[in-house]
Amino acid sequence: MFLSVSNLTKSYNTGIITHVLKGVNLEMKRGQIGVILGPSGSGKSTLMNIIGGVDSADSGTVEVDGERITGLNDKQLVEYRRESVGFVFQFYNLVPNLTVAENIEVVSNISRNPLQTDEVLSAVGLFNKKNRFPRELSGGEQQRVSIARAIVKNPKLLLCDEPTGALDLETSRGVLSLLQKVNTQFGTTILMITHNSAIAGMAHAVFRMRDGEIAEVRQNSELIQAERIEW
Amino acid sequence: MALRKRVWRIIKENKGRYIGIFILIFLGSFYFIAASGVGSSMGKLVTDFTEKNKQEDITFKTNKPLENIAALERESGALIDTYRLHDIKVPNGELRLLSPSTKVNIPAVTSGHGLKKPGDILLDPIFCKVHGLKIGDQLKLNGRTFDIVGTVAMPNYVYILKNVYEQYPPKGFGIGLISNADFKAFPKAATVYSAYMKDRENVKAKAANLNRLLSNKGYSLSEWLNAETNARIAMVRGNIEGAKTMGAPVAAAVYLLCCLILGVMIQRIVKSDGVVIGTLYAQGYRRGELVRHYMAIPVLLSAVSGLVGTLLALPVVGPVIGILTSSYNMPVTGLSFPPLSMVLGVLMPMVLLSLSSYVILRRVLKKSAAELMKGDEQKTKVNFLERKLQLERFKFATKFKLREQIRSIPRLLFLLLGVSAASMLLLLGFTVHNSFQVLMDSTGSDRYFPIETTFKEIQHGAAPKGAEPLNAIRSYLKGNEKAEFYVVGLEPNSIGITMRDSNGNNLPKNQVNITYLLAYRLGLKVGDTINIVSKVDGKSYSLKIDGIVQTYFGQYIYMPLEEFNRMTGNAPGSYLGLLSKNKLDIDENLLTGINDFHNLNEMDDTTTSTLTASVVLITIVASLAGAIIIFLVTSMMIEESRSTISLLKIFGYRGKEVAKLILNSSTPVVFIGFWLGLPLMLAVGNTLYGYLGEQINMVMPMIVNPWYVLISFVLIFAVYEVTKWLCGRKLAKISMSEVLKAGTE
Ligand SMILES: Nc1ncnc2c1ncn2[C@@H]1O[C@H](COP(=O)(O)OP(=O)(O)OP(=O)(O)O)[C@@H](O)[C@H]1O
Ligand SMILES: [Mg+2]
User: Fold this and answer.
1) Does domain A28-57+66-228 sit in CATH 3.40.50.300?
2) pLDDT single digits (tens) B466-475
């Protein structure tokens, strides 16, 4: 398995102890798209953050491409994120005073074998806007930039936390089909969080979380094209 | 009110920054009050002394004693007084004995009591200190014993120079006052006159009148000296003007820097509070209430720091006056604080800072509640410079750093100007110190024959064996009466004075050569033709400059002796002085003086240590100011880039890489700022000393020593590194969750 999570637990102590992850198990093959669905507060982001190496678990293991993430120290985690993971956030998180191209260079700057900035910009359809600043772009365009930024280092694993959460249907479709294209074109494994079960149709694997546990796993044999998603 | 708590929280959260601004404003008002207090106190001391004790307007000697002084006084409207003067060697120094006068230059007894009985003597306190003498001690002069009964200050010897054209008093030199009766023991004493104009209007013209009157009556006048060109009197005035002129501009510069940075900070606070403000508007808060509210920070901050600065500066004035007057001799009767300055010390920072904050506040608060609530204020706008900059060809790190800097232009300006100012201060301290050192070291260094013997009367015929003749007139450049110098005639084959050009080659002595210092002061270069006027008889001559003597000593124009004699109408072979390697055996009665240029003009210890202490103080203040400025900018930059920093960490940037990108972005600005400080320092230094030069016929070029520049550079960058290191810890504290949780709050 490319990604395997087993018995992952995590709790917060804010006076009262909250068990956020109560033994999560999850597996994904290389090159797949996985979608995590679930209600707010069910622990989706927490799980993804641990997989991405930006948060730590209490117990259990996460392995990515044979590397055990849960055993790494802070320094090793930096190298793991640097080499292997791409991030896409709900609110884009572009650096406001850098141009589109420069925002992408933020990542390619530290990658060993980055793709060409112009190449990814063309791939997300924003080549002609590369000298604009983020606030001069629409939300959908900003999210495309953030995807371009995440894929420029050609990551093994692309993590997207509600990438369409702030977008309308039409724009969301564009962003999702871009992710689908990245998946097929570069073979990138993608794990995506969404509130929207309509999106589940484009994923190979769908994980439904409830209250800190994976309540249901579904494998799709037929994938829906992102352009056809309706909600 | 909840909003009030918010303001306090903002201050508490950014303690470091507000403390930094506090210190800057504090330094500004402290300096302003101290400088204006010192300036006005010195001014008052000097005016009190000069007016009450009738400081002379002119001093002069005559070829024969003045007759019927009362009639002369009536005719000229002046008080004319006579006093006696005699220089007498003492172990390790020399004492100039003066007789007390009652009309002009009235002595002020500063401790002990006045002259009462024969054999009493009053000394100047500096002389007492140097020679370890105190009241009650005895002093043997010419075999006679004198009782030291007190210390005295003379209005015509505020700065106790032996010769008016010297820059520093010779070591161990001082003045003493003995009664006219006791002067009988010194039959060789000279008689000197001093005059004080009763009507204080147009003193200069009246002085010229007196000169004419005396000349018409057949007196031949020598050593005619106006108070304003007499360094013994004018030196202290130069210092007062210096303190006064440097007080306000420096403080203003500091305040303006503070305005810049505080403005940026207020803008940030108000912007990030935009939504809150909009909501408050919507709930019926009035604009005025909000303005008042956010103004609390600048008003409070500037009022408190201005007040603290003012209060702490007050007790400093006394000791500073003590230090300043330690090289002068005058009664210190009391301090004076101009009320306007006191008020300004507190109000100026308050008005400036509040005003600049108000302007910024208004811009934000003009918006409607709806606009503000949308939260657009928080979004970073891209400024003109960021948009215009074409950076594609640069490395990413370069682009990133550049953008980080130009993100806020006021912040960038603050850093640049702040570092320039701090560097300027640092360089100024070192350079003034260095210039003094160089001037001291080069004093007399060009004299192969260090002994200069000057006659009272023009001599004719051959010079004694081992000596070279010279002739000289005291003169000035037409139109610039304050810059006095000597035109010196020397034998073309003279070896007594070494003259080299800037390349180290010997200059021919059969031409007109000017010393570098004088050329610098008068702005002359080789090939210039100048008109000089003799101070003795007012005749003017024209000279063409053929060479510049590379020396930091002396203000002279050298020319061949015979040509000099021809030009000035002296018989061939005339000379007024002799240069020699060793002391000549000549009857002292024929001489006005003997100077040993290898043992001249030594700065006394107090001056040197005061200067060193000032340099140390300046270094500390400059480094502190530099540190604060860099800290303020860096911490603001980190604050504004929090989410970017968090993002970089998520993307797998190593701690050092983040630190490099964010913290090192200021390096070029600090670098440029430092080098801007150099010309700035030269400009300020030359203005300052140009002023002093005018007052006391002294030149003080800013001589930059590369080593000191290097030290300053290292110091500024050390301060920068330390500040970066301190801020680096802040950087490490920013967590990845800032981005991960963004939008969830
Ligand atoms: N730092 C923290 N301290 C305490 N509790 C936390 C912390 N971070 C998250 N939690 C809690 O963990 C639970 C899971 O949070 P998480 O962000 O993973 O939910 P989520 O499924 O992503 O929700 P959403 O769909 O709203 O993004 C929540 O109940 C939250 O309150
Ligand atoms: Mg979430």
Assistant:
1) yes
2) 899 999 998 8
Q: What residues pair up with B194 in beta bridges, in sequence order?
A: B59, B81
Judge contact between B382 and A97, C-beta under 8 A: yes
Residue nearest to atom 3 of ligand 1 (CA): A12
Model confidence over A153-173: pLDDT tens digits?
999 999 999 999 888 888 899
Mean of pLDDT over chain A: 92
Q: Residue by residue, what is the 3-state secondary structure of B453-507? A: EEEEEEECCCCCCCEEEEEEEEEEECCEEEEEEEEEEECCCCCCECCECCCCCEC
Three-state secondary-structure class, residue B428: helix
Residue A14 CB less than 6 A away from ligand 1: yes
Residue A45 CB less than 6 A away from ligand 1: yes
Asked whether B552 and B517 are in contact (CB, 8 A), the reply is: yes
Q: What's the rounded Cα separation, in Å, for the pair B153 and B108?
A: 5
State which H helix or E strand residue A144 sits in: helix A139-151
CB of A10 closer than 6 A to ligand 1? no
3-state secondary structure B205-265: HHHHHHHHHHHHCCCCEEEEEEHHHCHHHHHHHHHHHHHHHHHHHHHHHHHHHHHHHHHHH
Which CB contacts under 8 angstroms, 24+ apart, belong to B364-372?
A: B364/B267, B364/B270, B364/B271, B364/B274, B364/B277, B365/B270, B365/B277, B365/B287, B365/B290, B365/B291, B367/B278, B368/B281, B369/B278, B369/B279, B369/B281, B369/B282, B370/B278, B370/B282, B371/B278, B372/B274, B372/B275, B372/B277, B372/B278, B372/B281
With beta carbons less than 8 A apart as the criterion, state whether B422 and B632 touch: no
Bridge-based pairing state of the strands B144-153 and B120-123: parallel
Task: State the DSSP code for A27.
Answer: E
- Give me A126's structure tokens: 């924003």
Contact A79 B652 (CB under 8 A): yes
pTM of the complete model: 0.80
Task: Report the alpha-carbon distance of residue A105 to residue A107 in Å, rounded.
Answer: 5
Is A48 in contact with A159 (CB distance < 8 Å)? yes
Q: How many residues does chain A have?
A: 231
DSSP 8-state secondary structure symbol assigned to residue B104: S
Which helix (H) or strand (E) covers residue A4, if one does? strand A3-14
pLDDT score of B33: 86
Give the DSSP H or E segment for B81: strand B78-90
Predicted-assembly ipTM surpassing the 0.90 threshold: yes
Q: Does position B20 have pLDDT exceeding 90, yes or no?
A: no
| Ligand 2: centre distance to CA A209 (Å) | 12
Helix (H, G, I), strand (E, B) or coil at B284: coil
Burial of B709 (0-12, 13-18, 19+ CB in 10 A): buried
Q: Which residues pair with A210 in a beta bridge?
A: A213
Nearest Cα to Cα of residue B107 among B41, B148, B43, B55: B55
- Kindly tell me if the per-residue pLDDT of A88 is higher than 90: yes
Dihedral angle at the C-alpha atoms of B207, B213, B216, B222, nearest 10 degrees? -40
The pLDDT value recorded for residue B657 is 94
Section B115-139 average pLDDT? 92
pLDDT tens figures, A173-192: 989 999 999 999 889 999 99
Chain A hits for B644, CB-CB cut-off 8 Å, are 95
For B737, which residue in chain A has the nearest alpha carbon?
A: A54
CA B342 to chain CA mean position, Å: 23
Angstrom distance (rounded) from CA A50 to CA A60: 11
Among all bound ligands, the one having the nearest atom to the CA of A56 is 1
Q: Which of A159-168, B12-21, B599-608, B680-689 has the lowest mean pLDDT?
A: B599-608
The full set of domain ranges for chain A reads 28-57+66-228
Which sign, positive or negative, has the C-alpha torsion B556, B561, B566, B568? positive
Block residue for tokens 């917060």: A12
Interface mutation vs chain B, best among A12, A44, A51, A54, most B CBs within 10 Å: A54
